[in-house]
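not sure who needs this but someone in the group chat was asking about Cyclopropane-fatty-acyl-phospholipid synthase from Polarella glacialis so here u go. i didnt clean anything up, its just raw.
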Amino acid sequence: MLGPTMQYSCAYYHTPDLTLDQAQLAKMHMVASKLDLKPGMRVLELGCGFGALASLMAKEYGVHVTGVTLSEDQHAYAQKHFGHPSVDIRLQDYRSMEGQKFDRIYSVGIFEHIGRNCYETYFNKCHDLLEDDGVMLIHTIGFARRGEWNHGGFMNKYVFPGAELPTMSHFTQEFTDKWHCEDWHSFGRSYAETLRVWKDKLDGWKGLEEFDDRFRRMWEYYLMCSAASFDARRTKLWQIVYTKMSTTRDADAHHIRKAAQAVLTRHQD
């Protein structure tokens, strides 16, 4: 369903007629461009998934990537399929990271799962681990409505137990005072397209006969109701770029405005 990039997160459909793989690669390159990577940099990925993005950054941008995950299956898959001498995938909780500073820190698709009560822990840990002139990027689903999170809804009950989506207000709480927001990019309609393509790629569940009818209906409903929610802009997709308030950088992050154009040019070529 995910294709060879194994990206279980929003692709970037920045132009018509992209395939899923092209749109996922566009997302991956956009993350790299917004981070303003330079060869030799030390990069930390929180919740590294199946390892494809870390591998791409090491191969194409010449950086050293440390990825952490809590999933034994993802850790094993990354080691087998996306291994690289400059990539270190660890089976480790990000909160236990100590003793090393990184030039860049990013996460794609884990902020939704750490819980609203742990956002301060997340931001403070990233602040501790990031060099003073570093850049941090968060790629996350967001929610349009303020208020308490409903843990009794379909999605939490059947698909993502314990998940909680942030609202924009969560990024203005006191723990963000140590951070400067360089950029906020919203492209949730791309997630609607991603979800529809994932459903199409199931191809009638060929080769997946072990899943019964109830599971199949549940999974397709999850994909399609999620797509509808992104289309209605009830749920969002955000990429937010931060630098420290104490940064030693001597200019604004102008490179971010060039990132989207660089991705468009790359994938037109």
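also DSSP finds eight helices and seven strands in the chain. if thats useful
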